[in-house]
Amino acid sequence: MGTSSGRWLLAATIGGSSMAMLDSTVVNVALARIGEDLGADFTTLQWISNAYTLTLASFILVGGVLGDRYGRRRVFVIGTIWFGLASAACAVAPSAELLVAARALQGVGGALLTPGSLAIISATFDRADRAKAIGAWSGLGGVASAIGPFLGGWLVTIDWRLVFLINLPVAVGVVVIAVRHVPETGRTGSTGQLDIFGTVCIVGALSATTYALTTAGAMGWTTVVISIGAVALALWVAFVVVERRSASPLVPLSLFTDRVFAATNLATAFIYAALAVYFFLIVLQLQLVAGWAPLAAGTAILPITVLMLLLSARSGALSERIGPRPLMALGASLGAAGFAAGTRIGPDASYLSDVLPSVVLLGLGLSCAVAPLTSAVLAAAPESLVGAASGVNNAVARSAGLLAIAVIPGLVGLGSQDGLQPAVVQQGFVSALWIGAGLMAVAALVSLLGVPKRRRPEASPEIAAYREVAVYKDTCCPVGAPSLAPPDDHAAL
Question: In the predicted model, is pLDDT for residue 91 greater than 90?
Answer without folding.
Answer: yes
